[in-house]
Amino acid sequence: MAAWDLTVTVEDLGPDAPPLQISVTSDLHIGGVILKLVEQTNLKRDWSDHALWWEQKQQWLLRTGWTLDKCGVHADARLIFTPQHKPLRLGLPNGATLKMRACFSSPVFRTVMGICRVLNLRHPEELSLLRPVEEKKKKKDKDSSEELYDLTDVPLTAGSVQALYNGMPAHFADSPKTEAVYKMLSVSLPSPAPEAIAKLYRPASIVDKTHIHTRWLDSSRSLMQQGIQENDKLGLRFKYYTFHDMDPKYDAVRLTQLYEQARWAILLEDIDCTEEEMMLFGALQYHIGKQSLSQDMVSSCQGMDDLESALKSLEVKMVGDGNSTDMLDNMTAPELNDHLKIFRPKRLTLKGYKQYWCKFQETSISYYKSKEDRYGEPIQQLNLKGCEVAPDVNVAGQKFCIKLLIPAPEGMNEIYLRCENEKQYSQWMAACKLASKGLTLLDSSYQSEVQNIQTFLSMQRSSSAAPTSQTDESINTHSLVSPRYQKKYKPKQLTPRILEAYQNIAQLSLTSAILKFLQIWQALPDFGISYFMVRFKGSRKDEVLGIANNRLIRIDLGVGDVVKTWRYSNMRQWNVNWDIRQVAIEFDGNINIAFGCVNADCKVVHEYIGGYIFMSTRARQQSDTLNEELFHKLTGGHEAL
Amino acid sequence: MDDIDAMFSDMLQEMDLLTQSLGEEAESAPLPKPPTIPGPQEMNFSVGFTDFNASLHDLEDNDLDALMADLVADISATEEKFATEKDTLKGSAPVAPIPSQPPSNLSFPGSSSTLRQATSSNSIAATPPPPTSKPSKEELEEQIKADKIKLALEKLKEAKVKKLVVKVEIMDGSSKTLMVDERQTVRDVIDNLFEKTHCDCNVDWSVCETNPDLQTERGFEDHENLVEPLSTWTRDTENKVLFHEKKDKYEVFRNPQNFYMWKKDKKSLKDMKEKDKEQLLEENFCGASVIVPDLEGILYLKEDGKKSWKQRYFLLRASGLYYSPKGKTKASRDLVCLVQFDNVNVYYCKEYRIKYKAPTDHCFILKHSQIQKESQYIRYLCCDDEWTMTLWVTGIRIAKYGKQLYDNYKAAVRKAAGSATWASRSIQASSSASTPSPTPKARAANGHAPQPAVETKGSSNQTSFPPPPASMETLPPPPPDPMLPPPPPAPPSTNKVNQFPPPPQFPQSSFPPPPMDDLPPPPPPPPEDSELPPDFLPPPPPIFSSCGGEALPPPPPDPIASLPPPPALQNFASAGGAPPPPPPPPPPPAPAPAASKPAGSVRKVAPPPPKRTTPQLAAPSVG
Q1: Which positions 361-380 of B are in contact with A (Cβ < 8 Å)?
Q2: ipTM of predicted assembly, 2 dp
Q3: What CA–CA distance (Å, rounded) separates A455 from A461?
Q4: Is pTM beyond 0.80 here?
Q5: Record's PANTHER family (chain A) (predicted)?
Q6: Among A92, A227, A94, A130, residue whose Cα is nearest residue A608
């Protein structure tokens, strides 16, 4: 067989080195080509990660057993000999950028699996990569100031990483630098400055939201094939909103990143919520931020956690042992005694606050005319069990009121207690809060409740002075809500609203606060819907198709109303006509729909639907291994062969 | 140390005094209380009677018998509990005499003396035998003192438990009176009533409260406590507690499509496949957060303090009830929150057309449970028709209670299935597993054969003192239920009990009935470790326990109590993760065909052999 010259550029020789010419025959297999090539470079190094990339055809020649002939390579081909793993800048859900090596030669689905393995994220099938929003080129180069985390030195290990060292996967425990990366991954980041939120891109309409999803990469093709270059930036996001088997014990990173994604979705108004919900989200963010700060790296360790829980249960046991002194204390409950001003708004009275001697005991407040009368009958005794407690506070104006709505058969009794100062307020407020839940001052959470209130008050004080991002104690409440509410309320108005919501969640642990946040997020009506601009067959106008984990939604662009819903459970089959780029779906009862995609590639839509159906098969699969083949079968399309 | 000693002697004396006075009390009032420590919130009164004395006359003799027996059982249960406990703790210690079981068919006049008998045995136990043998041994003394303290505390604890005598009206006009203590859930009360009334025990039976002032009715949810809401009633209240079937109690679980796909034509939903219904439930109730039906539409809202009713466009969200103000869009940001559900309950109303000039009679209100009279804090809403009202009220219940509601339903179905196949005595056993200590004895008094084994065990459960050592360690025990056949799917809407498919070999094969010799009076450390293969069950998933787990009583640690499906345990297990461990009976849910069919359409169908994902082969080691 005739020999001919094959031109191959070896990247490792430097950008200016001329391509190498090697003499080959058509029946030489790829492995042989590589061997010849390596011999010719005279470089001694590990070439095992290198492979041949055929630039004109935009494809990898990965099957070393195939001959050149079988691959279709002829003398005119220009091949590049290059590593399969290259550094990539990953934009994480929490907004940080992480530089790490990723596979450029395998399908994106598998590349994501590799990335997730390094990051210690379980269930990589729920995530994918997307191209970043094209930033308007501003002259000042922001990239230089951007903090970059670097994981490129961490070798990609084969097999699952489960070995924990110092509370983190072993490959993070190598150096302080990598430890910092793990901390960034597993602990939620402080709230951003409000200006930073305002500056970021926010979808203003449902049409804008459809643009987000045009940017997903194709899971069945490699990064190189999709034009991604070394050191390019890509976003890593949860793509399918169905989170399988979430377990805080193993999912520290996954939970944190999911929380971050949800948080940003709310801050950037990706998902709409009501004012009440926003206040609760704000309160939870504040709480999570505070808990994350106080959570030291050491205490987050698995080992320590176990120890802690062991100690806890030991404690419980001791108490359960009928510790007699404890029980004795129970009978002589502590009280609060102080002068407070009380105001009971009644119709047709303008009477203001009047000072009384107040006693807080068990779950009731008794008040007396004066301190001297305290042994007699109180003027009134208020049992706070089941009541509503709301703060009415203005630190700048030194106003510390507690508004109580005490249920009674006739309705609610409205009573205001006015405290002199922060200290008094936080004590009484905490007591009221506990009493409303039927707990007494004895309850172990009392002290922390007092603390919580105090820190929150200090936040209100500092927010007027320091408008920048979160420090240890202070935080600007504007950074907890979306720009819409930043505009609507001044911090001074916002703080009490968030404080009100905060009362109900202040006792949550970090993990349960995150779970709660995710829960409320998932309960939003618009949760988990990905929008695409489509044109239905037979229709003359663009419409929006929403894809959720169990259904497709047709949305009228004019009104924004849901016109029709189809559930996957009624779906018989779906087809893609790749030539005219049209998706056709058949449902039970002879319902057929077909649409073309306006701004996204129809592969993305196809992959989304197939992906969700794949996700729903997971519940039945007992094993933990990912059925990659099935995924590609459901999402691949004809190109995946 | 002396101080404490003295204090306890005092306290014990006082308690004995109180217990003795109890007997006298019993003669004058129908509500003899166990020894109590006067506390600020102590209130025991009867519910369902117009006044205190009337209740005495109203009571039928047999009712009183039952109540007395309840009471005696209470005391002796505490006694026994303590005695057994002491036994287990230190076998060598002097054993307090276990009071003999009170005769089960007391008549009223004699009951007070019986009570005295019981209390006197009480006091015998209260003063443990003096340390005769070796007074020099300090250890022994300490031990006795510790016992004394424990006994005293235990008594106090029992005494602090609030109890109510409740008259429950049954649909046929008759009524039953029973004692409810604050630890009992509505579920327990319903079980109790099942026994007393011998009705068909289907899942629709519910305990309701009515308020004639507001003309409202509300069915209590199974997980709620009954005592708490009832004790906020006013003394002169005419509110009533009813026991009847309410079709809408669990309708959402039988026909979820009517609620979750309410926009669709009802006819097309009528013959939805069971499989699809199950999937709907799975989607909406078994995820990380419960999905609330996306209800929206025009309702009438009674203006604050006015007589007029205004139409508003309302939307239901998990976070509350919203309406969109005139001239605004339905977008979330523009919605105005009418009420959030944390502090309010939802009530059906009657005849509001007359009372409040409502547009229709299909009204419901949202109010704090303690409000008993007309008030500006009540939200009045009116719907066009009855179905709309059911839709909204059910939606609000889902938003308020979340997964708990589903758990309640599953427990109710299990109960109903159990009671259909089992003899009534097995119901007792099953309920005693979840009810607090006094109840087993109470049942004994109702003329049924008690199951002594379960009793002892059940009562030892309740204490806060260390139960038999091992049981603490094994908490939470892996729920044994998955071994049992899962509950039958949504029961038919008719009330015939025998329509429930009898659970296959439920009682016989899975768990043999406890052999009597297995149960010596002092309960040994629970043997469940050996009985339940630990690897058979996944450990209770710790995630999301906040959504339901914490509201539940801790799972009873003893294996025998869990013999019949205890609701608490099951709840515990299913409140856990996203997919509950016991899967619904037909394993392949809907996505299966959907998954394979489309695949076939895209390309050839080939059943994919589960393939192991191979990890990335090459690791770069460049440089």
Answers
A1: 368-373, 375-378
A2: 0.82
A3: 10
A4: no
A5: FERMITIN 2-RELATED, FERMITIN FAMILY HOMOLOG 3
A6: A130
